[in-house]
Structures are given as structure tokens and as C-alpha cells.
Amino acid sequence: MQSIIYNSELFQLSYFHWFLSFLGVFLLGLSKSGIKGIGVVIVLLLAFVFGGKASTGILIPMMILADIFAVIYYHRHTQWGLLKKLLPSMVIGVLIGVWFGNDISEQLFKQIMAVFILATVAIMVIMERKKNKNIPTNKLFSNGMGLLSGITSMIGNLAGAFASIYFLAMRLPKNEFIGTAAWLFFIINVFKLPFHIFIWKTVTAETILLNLFLIPGVVLGFFVGIQLVKLIHNDLYRKFILAVTAIGAITILLS
């Protein structure tokens, strides 16, 4: 069986671990195609196989590859104004994540993040039920969501929940939601890559070799997801994202 050497540790991947790895990157492809809210499952699957921090280095090149597919497919729908609002604070969040990523307890971090996500989803559900069509214009909201997205992106590759809530609050239609998120995460993930290589040392020649074996799963997931997204109406898409995001937060809280 193929062995993966990572930081002087030998990972013997069983057939079951290979299956979980392919399932994880298949779901990653689905997520980047627009089936948002399943990032928690992806992270948990790869963390189970490779360990928490090690899995972030294995996941980041796969995320960039899937981001490239998403950017190419959805680029014409990108809302650049919203992207510019969220990106600066998200970059700061990534830098904070790099700083504290080695020290903070993963369990405590996940629990705090889950509470934040659930609270924000609850507010969004209340707004939906009241049929509130007002779009938040407060800079504190956009900067807060960007900061949380950046921190959670660097430490746990779990920024999707906060970004999804922000784009839902902006009442973006389905394709604009996906296209704007595609560019946002492509830029952020490329920005994160040097930190994984040179500071955390979670991306190595060996992990890149593993990535080469996992590429087909990402590609398959993306194109399956494209077909699924076409079947989902805009209103149903909003409810789907809120529901899956809330379920993901509860999963984090209980894991």
C-alpha cells in the first residue's frame, strides 16, 4: 500500500482511508461547484485520516485546484464590490490564524466557532421569517465576517460558513453567490499557501504526491455538483445553505 511520509511520520493508508480521502475531496468538488455548507464534513473526514493540522496541508492544494474550476465556470457572475469589502479583513484574519494557529486548542477553537455560526444562522433565520429584505450596510458586519472567515480559514479550512452567511445577508442570487465566493476563496487560499509551506510546513513534496492521486475525486465532485446546482431554485438554495450550515456547526460542536 502507498505510504505517505509527513514530517518524519509514516502514514500507512488502508483501503478505508483511501476511500475516506476520495470521499472528502469529492465533497470538496461538490462544495466548490456551489453545494455550500458541507465544508465541516470534508474537514472531519480528512482530519480523521491524517490528523487535524496535517490534513490542512493536504487539503489546501486541492482547494486551490477546485477554486480554479469554480473561478473559470462562474467568473462572469462575480460581484467585485462585495469581494473588495470582505477581502481586506479576511486577509488580516488569515494572519491572525497563522499567529495563533500553533497555540490554540483545536477543540476550544471549534466550539467557539460553532457557537458563532449558530448564533449568526439564528439571526439569519429570524430575518428570513420576517421577510426582512434590508441588506446590512454596517462595516462592522462585513469586517467581522471577513475577520472570522480569515481566522477559521487558516486554522481549520472552515471559513465557508461565515462567508456563506455574509453572502446570504447580501441577498445574492445563486450564481452570484457561487461566483463571488469562488474568487474570494481562490485569492485567500493562494495567499495561505506560503504559510503552509514555510511556517507550518504542512505542505511538502510527499503531500503534493498524495494530492496527485486525489485530483480525480475533486474533478468528479465539481462536475457532479454543477448539475445539482442547476436543479436548485434560488429560494430553495438560500434555505439549503442555512440548513446545512447550521447542521455543520452542530457537528463541529459535538465532534
From TrEMBL:
GO cellular component: plasma membrane
Keywords, sorted A to Z: Cell membrane, Membrane, Transmembrane, Transmembrane helix, Transport
Transmembrane segments annotated in the record for this chain: 12-30, 37-52, 86-102, 108-127, 147-169, 181-200, 207-230
Topology in the lipid bilayer: Multi-pass membrane protein
The keyword Transport belongs to this UniProt entry's keyword annotation: yes
Keyword Endoplasmic reticulum included in the entry's annotation: no
Top-level taxon in the UniProt lineage: Bacteria
Cross-referenced InterPro entries: TM_pro_TauE-like, TSUP
Location within or outside the cell: Cell membrane
Broad class of where this protein is predominantly found: membrane
Protein family: Belongs to the 4-toluene sulfonate uptake permease (TSUP) (TC 2.A.102) family.
Protein name, UniProt field: Probable membrane transporter protein
Protein source organism: Lutibacter agarilyticus
